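Your task
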Amino acid sequence: MSRQKKLPPVHEAWLPREHPLHRPRHGRRQLAALVCAVLFFTAPLVSWVFGARPAQLENRPLAAFPSVTDGWGFFTGMNAWATDHLPFRRQAVQSVDALSRGVFGEPARLDGGSHTSPVGAGQVDEKPQIDENVFPAVIEGKGGWLYLGHDVSYRCVPKRSLDEVIAGLRRWRQVVEASGRKFQLVVAPDKSTVYPENLPDAFAGEDCSAKAREEFWKRVPRETGALDMRGQLREVAARNQRPIYHDIDTHWTHEGGITMAYQLAERLEPGATRDWKVRPSRQYPHSADIPDLLGQDRTVPIQAYSLAPDGSDVDNTQFKPSDFHEPLHLESPPKPGMVTRPMRMVGDSFTQFASPYLAATFTDLTIVHPDQVAVDPEAAGRLLAEGEIVTFELSERFVAGGRYPMLDAAVADRAGAVLAAHPIR
């Protein structure tokens, strides 16, 4: 039997080049890839030192630098952080979009729904049958209308089934009401739900999103007690003879925010809005969120309003910009037409257009973002325990897509334990 040859006692990269077992440690392609990776991850840091600051292009905060305590999550989170913080990202997006339109005659598929809310404990994250990347970040509709692609992709590729979503919402109602508090749930409709007529004649996900939307609105208000504002929003728009959603922004106007304040107040104290006086006040430009995804900086005119709940000429609104990731507290002396019971609210970007009017009509109000509830359910429970009324405003696309981590029943149970320890007698 022939004797086996022993491998050299040194690494194969250190062998002479003419040796048959020589293998370079880094070939040219490997070296090029390594250099590109180093540049990709260090460019944000170097540009920051020289004064460049990243621009927020999407309707979400920039990805935070991952923590070393995240384990492997530190490495997987680096890609999102580096992508968000690349210098001149807006210019790159503009160039890619212009190239796509010039060569192929269609907008670039820039995002494709790859950014989602953080996954909470126990969140169902099954492999979808449809790849989210087939959906564009922006849907260009008729008459210059723009729609957020997530209106479609989140419905077509949900992270939770509708049954699980409904169970999560019902669990929140149970734990809040078990503590003696009043629970209100508002689902802010997507722009594509209120104004489907301005969508293009054909687009990716048209059939699956329409089917999911129909099932959502058929079941969720009935099975969770959610306030369905679709009819009221169209009525207000018809009365004012202008759309209640911006044509190039995904949110409703201030008129939508006022409509939500009206509906909440009437649900809690019927007749409370009888003497409310609403008048147009200032106008100001607002940076539209959807064009940002195309690298465009466009604004929409915002019409704000004054609101006097007692019917006087004294404006009671408070305009305090906030994304609610830090709880926003709004307090006002009681007047006729106001709800005086303290209200604690979970709300997202749609509530930003309602908060001035909620401040005018609720004497004691604190608002926190849904993501913060999942991050620290006990802290959320302590905040909600300060109120006699607990209100959730949640966006349709995130609810329909099961994208809120706080929909996990375990999150509701942890916050509910705090509420149960501080019941309303």
